[in-house]
Specification:
CATH superfamily: HUPs
Number of helices: 6
Strand order of the largest sheet: 3-2-1-4-5
CATH architecture: 3-Layer(aba) Sandwich
Shape: globular
Number of domains: 1
CATH topology: Rossmann fold
Oligomer: single chain
Number of strands: 5
Distance between the termini: 37 Å
Bound molecules: adenosine monophosphate
Largest sheet: 5 strands, parallel
Length: 147
């Protein structure tokens, strides 16, 4: 069985390389497999946990512009990734990734996973989040722990 449309979720850190490479490996020798890319910019108010008594719109815009630049760089680095199949959006990663996967008819989502344990496990991970209630298969690419 081959996947028809793979959605690669990237956090735009240096750790997204192994995630992208694994997704590319899934497409190898398959002309028909479409590859889409997504990065979600989390609204700052959300990251701070709700109401923040200042205007974050300028900072938010900078954050979005920076993410766009990084996403463009990633697309340039891997010619198999196409700008027209890349998505940059505001929101909560799990929700937006699921929404996009459904909307685009993806049959596989690829994310990175740090294989957390101990205290870090309590904080949760995006891979875990994405897995729960996912509309399709999810591949969690094992990432070497950050030091
Ligand atoms: P984390 O659990 O936050 O360390 O992230 C693990 C993986 O989740 C990353 O390697 C990405 O595949 C995905 N991910 C994390 N944050 C985002 C984001 N903002 N947008 C898209 N994917 C993300």
């Amino acid at each position: 069985m081959y996947y028809e449309h793979i959605l690669v979720a990237v956090d735009l850190t240096e750790e997204c390389d192994p995630v992208v490479k694994r997704a590319l490996a899934l497409c190898e020798g398959r002309d028909g497999t479409k590859l889409s890319l997504v990065h979600i910019v989390e609204p700052m108010a959300m990251a701070f946990g709700g109401d923040v008594p200042m205007d974050l719109s300028q900072l938010q815009q900078q954050q979005f512009d920076q993410a766009k630049e990084r996403l463009d760089r990633l697309i340039t680095k891997y010619p198999a990734l196409k700008k027209e199949n890349s998505h940059l959006t505001y929101g909560q990663p799990r929700q937006e990734i699921h929404h996009l996967a459904k909307e685009q008819g993806c049959d596989m989502i690829v994310v990175g996973s740090h294989g957390r344990h101990g205290l870090a496990l309590l904080l949760g991970s995006t891979a875990n989040d994405v897995l729960h209630g996912a509309p399709c298969d999810v591949l969690a690419v094992h990432l070497v722990k950050r030091t």
